[in-house]
Write a structure and sequence with these properties.
Blueprint: H1 2-20, E1 38-51, E2 54-65, E3 75-80, E4 84-94, E5 100-103, E6 110-113, E7 119-122, E8 125-130, E9 138-148, E10 154-158, E11 164-175, E12 182-186, E13 193-196, E14 202-211, E15 227-231, E16 234-237, E17 240-243, H2 247-257, H3 266-275, H4 282-296, E18 298-299, E19 301-303, H5 314-320, E20 322-323, H6 325-338, E21 344-348, E22 368-375, E23 378-382, H7 395-398, E24 402-407, E25 410-415, E26 425-434, E27 440-449, H8 458-461, H9 466-476, E28 482-492, E29 498-507, E30 512-514, E31 517-520, E32 542-544, E33 548-557, E34 562-566, E35 571-575, E36 578-587, E37 590-599, E38 602-604, H10 609-623, E39 627-631
Parallel strand pairs: 1-11, 7-19, 18-20, 26-33
Antiparallel strand pairs: 1-2, 2-9, 3-8, 4-5, 4-9, 6-8, 10-15, 11-14, 12-15, 13-14, 16-17, 21-22, 21-24, 22-23, 24-25, 26-27, 27-29, 28-29, 30-31, 31-39, 32-38, 33-37, 34-39, 35-36, 36-37
Amino acid sequence: MKALFLVALSLTSIFVIGKDEKYPVKDIPLELMENVNLVLREDHMRYTILAKDKGVFYAHLVVTILNEKGNNYASQDLGYDKLTKILQFEGHVYDANGKQIKRLRNSEINDRAAFDGFSLFSDDRIKEADLTQTTYPYTVEFEYEIEYRFLYFIPGSVFGGQKRSTQNASYQLVFPPALAPHYKSINLDVLPKKEILPTGLHSITWHLNNLKPTIAEAYRGESDLPRIMAAPTMFEYDGYSGEMNSWENYGKWNLLLNKDRGSLPEATKQKIKQLTSSAKTLEDKTKLVYEYVQNKTRYVSIQLGIGGLQPFAATTVDEVGYGDCKALSNYTVALLKEIGVKSYYTIINAGSDAAEVKKDFPSHQFNHVIVSVPNGRDTLWLECTSQTNPFGYQGKFTSDRWALLITEEGGKLVRTPKLKTEQNTQIQKAEVTIDKSGNAKAKVTTAYSGLQYENGGLHFRIAGQADDQRKWLEDNIDIPNFELGAFSFKNVKDKIPTAIVNVELTLNRLASVSGKRIFITPNLMNRSTGLPPKNENRKNPIVLKSSYVDVDSITYFVPEEIYPEFVPPAVKIDSRFGEYESSITFSQGKLLYVRRLKVKPGEFPASSYGELVDFYKNLNKADNAKLVFLSKT
């Protein structure tokens, strides 16, 4: 009997240990372990619509981390505010064999204010947990549930990625039929499973398995990762009800949000009328109002409840002198209305790398607000958050994308303009005096126009302090061994702005001397050196968004006893990706180097990637060609 008891006890112990073992690494298919830093063992998301003002998001994430490059998946941050409640937040850690070695305790969850570095007013908070280990591989498991006391956006899902594989994943929408959301699947050939649950709620679920890592490719357009977007059809946020079944209705909800927020103090009404009384054109009036807003206000981020979506009243901005993009745009619209200029509060997805708005999917895809002013067949676009932005200039932040005008009839989707290649220029002229030791003095004038006005953050420094401008020069002058002398910055604030930078340089050992020969690269400070990364089996089309024209004209003055022994021949390159010309002439101690590069935008077939590499190889060779002087003495 004692022996039987011991056997039973032993079997029980084995059963308990086996029960505790979860997600052993040996259960991962070998093909999912190749060229990855982590494997998503389980990646499951569910959003349940409970009412037009309430939803619950549930996530279960299990990640096997193979090396330290995957450690970012060992931590989890959950945001919340007065309209959001975290119902569940659990975590576990397992070793390579699947044995649990840690359980997340409540005392290990850090609760802090969500300080983003620029929001002055915010009620956002974050609960965060870090389960990072130092012995690899290990597996972390997070499970959490968040209640939203509003229904405005529904978290979507992106499957797969670089340097990570996915073993099992799912995305589920649960909802009462009267509140059915709309959804859009992208790069996904999996049909969803639709069913009616015992509760009477409807369910739509996508399942994916064994996704290998994607390969990063330079110069690509929209991501080709499988993705699901979802949005409510009927919703309510902090008492404001609306519909998101069309851009028109979504715009009507924004109109409701802004209702009765455009009043101005009487003194301000009189001031703005007097300020613009002598202006003859709509554009002149608009410019005066824009500059008035720039001089009177400053940008402050506001993230208080629905304040993340609703602007401060114009009277508040007028009184305190600050606001976020919503408040400052609403204030500008109110001022323009007072002088009889029609304008529109306009929501947009801003940023140089912002995702393209899916125009066939009405939903909250925006992060910024600007103002649009119809001007005959033209439109003026106003960025109201900057105190230095040139009037009418959008730049990389908001140009060439879809924006939603909030009109009296609702939302209207429009495309913001794109600058032409020939408008994005860098024109550089330099005079360089070289001595026979290879040292030189240079005076350089460069005019940066259009999108090149933003090169290296120049648009932030153009009106800054001298120390900031000096730092910009030191960071952006691509010449070894230079000493910075006198410099000046001039800001030409047109709708297509120009920054003119003058600089004097001392260039020690600009040329290398070997006996009677002096070697110099005529392209002083605009040389192409980089190459597109190797990609022998290109899959995605090549997308080139950047387009510009560079023109360099450099005059070298050399001592009389020096003459050119070898001059690189003129170069002309003509490709679907761009055009390049360079030439050198020498006469009476003066050498003139002229270079012109035009980079074209567009989408090109994947098969042309080798041609793109060749274009830059030839460009680099021409830019770095050396000229040889010979001394007579």
